[in-house]
Amino acid sequence: MKQLCPLLGKLTILSLTVFPLVAEEVGERWGTEARERDYYRIVELPLPKGEVIEAGAFTALPDGRIAVGTRRGDIILISGADEEKPQPKYEVFASGLDEIFGLAWKDNAFYVTQTPELTRVTDTNGDGKADRFECLSDAWGFNTYHEYAFGSKFDPKGNLYVALGLSMSYHSWQLYRGWAMKITPEGKTIPIASGLRSPGGIGFNEHGALFYIESQGPWNSSCSLKFIKEGGFMGHPASYNWYPYAPNVGPAPPEPANGSRLITESARIPQLDPYAVIFPYIRMGRSITGFVLNDTKGKFGPFENQMFLGDYTQSLIMRATTEQINGVWQGACYPFREGLSTGILNVQFTPDGNLLTGGTNRGWPVRGLKPFSLERLDWTGRMPFEIDRITITPKGFKIAFTKAVDATTGADPASYVVKTFTHKYHGAYGGPEVDQTTPGVKSVTLAEDGMSALIEVDQVKGHCHEIDLVALRSRDKEELLHRNAFYTVNEIPTK
C-alpha cells in the first residue's frame, strides 16, 4: 500500500480549515437527494474484501467488461457491473503503474496515461494478465506528487491527448508541465497548448471538439470547462518557459494583465479563449474531475449528447452542454445527482447505459463518507421535470425542458430570473464573483407544446448567467427537480 506523503496530511487539514464544506447551502440550491433518487438511483458495486480500488479512469471493453485504472497503479477488469443486484467479478490485469488518470482500448491493448508516461499494456500469451508494457511517450517531466497526467480516449484519427498539471499546482518545474500534448498513431508527441493549471479530466463533446476540466486556483477564479485548440493558451502563464521547446505553436503569448477580466484579455491575446463553461464555486462543484459524453441513445434518460462530470470534493455528478457561437465555444452547466459515497474522480457509461462512478478521498476532504467506492447511477424510467438544455439566441436564451411547462407559469416573465457575474482574471488563488448585473426578462414565448421557452433578456459578454426558474411548474404541477442552470456567454449570435 502506498503511504501518504506528509504534505498530503497538511493539505487536508488546511482544506478543512479554510474551505469548510457547506452541505446545507448545496442541498438548498440543488434540491434534496431524496427527490433525485426517484429518477436516478445509486447502486453500490461490492468490492473484494481487502481490495483498495481508487478508480481514476475507466474504459468499456468490446466483451462488455469495464476496465478500471486506479490511483495505486492497477488495471482491474470488472464483469457483471450492470447486474440488477451486482456481485461483480474482479480480475487484476496489471499492476505497478503510477496514478492512472487515463485509460483507452484499441487493437487488444490498453493505452494508459500515468504520471510519467503514456504506456501500451498488452497480454501477449492470452492468460488474462498483462505481460508487455511499452512506453509510447515520456516526453514530459515529473518529480513531485502533484504532477498528475490525464489522458483522453482516441479521436477519429487515432490520436490521444494528455493534459499535464503544473508542479505542485503552482509552478512548471518540469518539462511541459502545464501543457496539453497530442500523441499520434505513429508515436510522435506534439505539444499543442500551454496554460493549464490543475486539470481534472480531458475528452470530447458531441461534435468531437477537445475539452478539459480546469480547477479553481491561480488565474482561475472558478472551475471551468475549457476548449483546447492547437496553439492555444489556457490561461495560466507559469508554463511559458517551455515555448522554446515547442516551436510548432509559435512564440509565447503576451503576459495576461493581472486583475483584468478574461473576456478582455482574450480579445487582446489571440491564443487565449475564454472558458467555455464556468462552474460557480460551491454552487456547482468545487473540484471537478473526469467527464464522459452520454451517447446511450436514451438508456440513461433524456440527456443525450450531454457531458456528465464528477466532482471530487462534493461527491456528486453534474451535466454540461456546449455550443459554438461565432467560432467560440460556450455553454451551460446543470446540477444532476448528489449523495455519492466518495470523492468522484471519473465516470463511464456501461453497456446497459448506466453511469459508473468511482474515486477516493485520499489527499483532500470530501463529502462522501467512504475512502473509496464504485457506484452506479441507474435511470429508474421516471421522467424528471428538469431544464434539459439552454442555448443562446440573438436576444436571449432558448430553454428546453424534459416535460411540458404549464401555460400560466411558463408564459410569465416573472417566472424567469436571470442574474449575471464574472470573476477577476488574476494570479491570486480563486476569486469572488464580481461585476454582478440583474437584467430583467423582457418577454417570454412559450412553445405550444410547452417543451421550450424563448426568453428575451440582455446578455452580458464574458459573464456567467444564472437562470433561476423556481416559480415554473409542469403541466402536472411539478416543481423543477433543479431550479438553477448557469450559461456562460462569450459570444452573442447575430441570427
Q: Can you tell me the CATH class of the largest domain?
A: Mainly Beta
| Strand proportion | 35-45%
Say which CATH homologous superfamily of the largest domain is assigned.
Answer: TolB, C-terminal domain
Mean pLDDT across every amino acid position = 93
CATH architecture of the largest domain: 6 Propeller
| CATH third-level topology of the largest domain | Neuraminidase
Question: What is the β-strand count?
Answer: 33
**N- and C-termini, Cα separation:** 58 Å
Continuous helix count: 5
3D architecture notes:
- The radius of gyration is 22 Å and the shape is globular.
- Strands 19-20-21-22-33-32-28-29 form an eight-stranded antiparallel β-sheet, with no helix packed on it. A five-stranded mixed β-sheet has the order 10-11-12-13-17, with no helix packed on it.
- It is 7% helix and 37% strand.
- It starts with 5 loop residues before the first helix and ends in a 6-residue tail after the last strand.
- The chain has two domains: 6-379, Neuraminidase; 387-489, Immunoglobulin-like, CATH 2.60.40.
- The longest helix has 13 residues, at 6-18.
- It contains five helices and 33 strands.
- A hairpin with a 2-residue loop joins strand 6 and strand 7.
